[in-house]
């Protein structure tokens, strides 16, 4: 394959996208919080909408309830800080998680910005109980520079009847 | 010195108090018979929250709600009158309404197609001879209404006991605090779109106590409070006319509240430096409207007072950095379902709504910084009640010797437990 004979190629391949997503999930499983934060751009919008009585997702995080909403990475950093203190009793002892990602589809790509969706399923074990979370995530990745970073993430949690807690390491 | 563990002469024996001691038996959190007596003595006889008026803005609107273990329809008919029906077809029992929310002039059962006007009246025509001509003359084919339905300050309640006292008598001193919450906005309050539902493996009374427990915050919520120091960007103006002291008030009939200052920003209407100088002016304008409408004393209470209010038995309205309306119901002695909504001024400016929701999500709900740590504590208590044969009593005596109890005392919990004891004893 040569650049001369090929039309303009995608900056990142499907395999690159998958490798990035698997790595982000693995960093959560390994509780490597600081490296995990580096997967996100400083101005990332990180949003998990709530469901309404109409069985629709809330559409406007600034006017309706969400489960988690951050307009930038500071909120994720606050969460990591809190996890690392060991004084959030809901997260200490830490859950053992196992993230699985599948059905990864690239929806659009322009100038190194990649929009994609995937299904996710996380099993979480803590205090002799296993819980699970599953849904679909919609992401925009910035693949223009060296390292790929997430600039937008909307997480649809399909089993939103939650036992006690849902945190970044479940998603 | 009086003897502790002396039961109320008319009580269950599970709540024992003296002038300086107050104990509750841990069996009240674990035993199936206690739950059965609570169902009969409390959930079948008390006024229970069903919804807020803003959820039914127009005639024909309905929501479906689970209240006190029943599946209910809360709706308005074509004329706009409010109703609460058991969501069960009089024919065989299938749910007549299967959506959680909507607008409809009639309801139709999906099983055999019986239909009903939204005032509950049976509305199907059968071919002659199918049923007697006077079928439904006794109303047996109409939807069954919940015996009592009433609203106060926009909050609607049902009661399964047709002979219960009126809602206003029941609410007693809590009426004024519901009104304080309604007073936040000249145009009324509304439930914000979206619901948080979660479950807790603990007895429901542990969440009652936790919801207005001023004592646990510094320990349980230390990570939130550290976050807050950074987020508020400096000292807020607190509640000057109360001497910056938080107190507990027994409101009668088991209702109680803790009220006082707190360091976080309140969209209505306590400014924090993180909101900037523009924000200071906007908050000042909101405060000025409050003072004009309500007078200085009430305006200060609305703006600077944080309230954790319990309406006995299971409605919590926490008017803190945002307002949450929360109900919960025990499925089992050690398991409850929790529903939680955000309440906000109608027509609130978008950037205030955003601040409110940021505040709400940061603290409250299963994705927040506080609720999961609370739940951890409740579940830990519940698990250790398996030691109850040897370690059988909870202590709820903090501040009993004080004339004016503080919010981090436990007078508000004692108010709950005395009413609980009275009602459960009667149900024995």
TrEMBL record, chain A:
Pfam families with a match to the protein in the record: Ring_hydroxyl_B
Gene3D superfamilies per UniProt: 3.10.450.50
GO BP: any one term: 3-phenylpropionate catabolic process
InterPro entries attached to this UniProt entry: Benzo_1-2-diOase_ssu (IPR017641), NTF2-like_dom_sf (IPR032710), Rng_hydr_dOase-bsu (IPR000391)
A GO molecular function held by the record: dioxygenase activity
Domain of life from the UniProt record: Bacteria
UniProt KW keywords: Dioxygenase, Oxidoreductase
Keyword Magnesium assigned: no
Protein family according to the UniProt entry: Belongs to the bacterial ring-hydroxylating dioxygenase beta subunit family.
PANTHER family in UniProt: BLR3401 PROTEIN
Name this polypeptide is given: Benzoate/toluate 1,2-dioxygenase beta subunit
Organism: Rhizorhabdus histidinilytica
From TrEMBL, chain B:
Keyword hit for Protein transport: no
Domain of life: Bacteria
UniProt keyword Iron-sulfur, yes or no: yes
Pfam family, one: Ring_hydroxyl_A
All residue ranges annotated as the Rieske domain in the record: 48-117
GO function terms (MF aspect): 2 iron, 2 sulfur cluster binding; dioxygenase activity; iron ion binding
SUPFAM superfamilies: Bet v1-like, ISP domain
Keyword list, A-Z: 2Fe-2S, Dioxygenase, Iron, Iron-sulfur, Metal-binding, Oxidoreductase
Family: Belongs to the bacterial ring-hydroxylating dioxygenase alpha subunit family.
Protein name per its UniProtKB record: p-cumate 2,3-dioxygenase alpha subunit
């Amino acid at each position: 394959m040569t650049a001369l004979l090929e039309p303009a190629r995608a900056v990142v391949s499907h395999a690159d996208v998958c490798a990035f997503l698997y790595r982000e999930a693995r960093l959560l499983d390994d509780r490597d919080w600081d490296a995990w934060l580096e997967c996100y751009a400083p101005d990332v919008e990180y949003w998990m909408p709530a469901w309404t009585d109409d069985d629709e997702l809330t559409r406007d995080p600034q006017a309706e309830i969400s489960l988690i909403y951050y307009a930038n990475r500071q909120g994720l950093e606050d969460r990591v800080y809190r996890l690392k203190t060991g004084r959030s009793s809901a997260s200490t002892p830490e859950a053992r998680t196992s993230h699985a990602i599948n059905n990864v589809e690239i929806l659009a790509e322009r100038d190194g910005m990649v929009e994609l969706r995937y299904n996710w399923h996380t099993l979480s074990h803590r205090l002799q109980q296993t819980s699970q979370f599953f849904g679909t995530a919609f992401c925009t990745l910035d693949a223009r520079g060296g390292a790929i970073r997430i600039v937008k993430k909307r997480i649809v949690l399909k089993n939103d009847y939650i036992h006690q807690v849902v945190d970044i390491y479940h998603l | 010195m009086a003897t502790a563990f002396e039961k109320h002469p008319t009580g269950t024996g599970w709540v024992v108090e003296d002038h300086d001691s107050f104990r509750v038996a841990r069996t009240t959190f674990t035993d199936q018979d206690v739950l059965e007596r609570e169902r009969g003595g409390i959930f079948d006889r008390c006024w229970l929250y069903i919804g807020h008026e803003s959820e039914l803005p127009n005639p024909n609107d309905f929501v479906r709600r689970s209240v006190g273990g029943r599946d209910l329809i809360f709706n308005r008919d074509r004329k706009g009158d409010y109703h609460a029906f058991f969501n069960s077809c009089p024919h065989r029992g299938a749910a007549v309404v299967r959506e959680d929310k909507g607008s409809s002039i009639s309801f139709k059962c999906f099983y055999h197609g019986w239909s009903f006007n939204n005032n509950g009246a049976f509305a199907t025509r059968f071919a002659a001879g199918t049923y007697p001509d006077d079928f439904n003359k006794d109303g047996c084919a109409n939807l069954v209404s919940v015996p009592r339905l009433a609203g106060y300050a926009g909050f609607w309640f049902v009661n399964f006991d047709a002979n219960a006292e009126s809602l206003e008598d029941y609410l007693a001193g809590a009426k004024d605090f519901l009104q304080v919450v309604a007073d936040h906005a000249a145009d009324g309050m509304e439930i914000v779109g979206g619901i948080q539902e979660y479950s807790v493996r603990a007895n429901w009374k542990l969440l009652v106590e936790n919801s207005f427990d001023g004592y646990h915050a510094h320990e349980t919520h230390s990570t939130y409070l550290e976050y807050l120091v950074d987020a508020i960007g400096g000292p807020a103006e607190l509640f000057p006319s109360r001497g910056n002291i938080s107190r507990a008030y027994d409101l009668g009939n088991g209702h109680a509240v803790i009220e006082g200052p707190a360091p976080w920003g309140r969209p209505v209407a306590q400014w924090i430096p993180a909101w900037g100088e523009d924000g200071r002016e906007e908050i000042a304008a909101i405060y000025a409207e409050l003072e004009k409408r309500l007078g200085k004393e009430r305006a200060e209470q609305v703006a600077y007072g944080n309230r954790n209010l319990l309406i006995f038995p299971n409605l919590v309205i926490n008017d803190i950095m945002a307002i949450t309306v929360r109900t919960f119901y025990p499925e089992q002695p050690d398991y409850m379902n929790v529903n939680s909504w955000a309440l906000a001024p109608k027509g609130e400016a978008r950037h205030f709504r955003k601040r409110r929701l940021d505040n709400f999500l940061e603290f409250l709900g299963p994705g927040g910084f506080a609720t999961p740590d609370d739940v951890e504590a409740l579940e830990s208590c519940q698990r250790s009640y398996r030691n109850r044969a040897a370690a059988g009593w909870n202590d709820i005596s903090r501040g009993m010797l004080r004339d004016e109890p503080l919010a981090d005392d436990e007078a508000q919990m004692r108010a709950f437990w005395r009413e609980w004891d009275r009602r459960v004893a009667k149900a024995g």
